[in-house]
Amino acid sequence: LAAAVLDPLGKPSLSEDEQLKETFDAVSLVLAAEDQGPGTLFVTTRQVVWAENTTSAVAVSFTSLTMHAVASASEAFPCDSIYMQLDDAQPSEDDDDGVVPEVRLVPADSSAVAAIFQALCDGAAANPDEDMDDDEGDFF
Question: Global pTM?
Fold first, then answer.
């Protein structure tokens, strides 16, 4: 996750070819099992932005989002949520344990999970990984 710039209204500053697609209020960000508290989730045509308030935000581009899934409440995590794995493009020299950065998005209203997931699916489909070769997915 990288720091994101917000405009004076507390929305993400967008690049010229970027549009705000969805906004979800009261979504908690859980990073490395640490709840960052509730904030606003913005899904743009290029990235996912979580803003704690009108001045502090973090973002991940769709090309750095390696996986996202709906996670139902369980003993491991007590709330319905969106589970995401991120591409750690800059691993440190000390990071030889292969840990993949993980994030959970937890809406206060669990009925929003499906809409958040769909917004992430749409964004991921619109931003394919340019490094992927079309033949890589073939099993044979």
Answer: 0.86
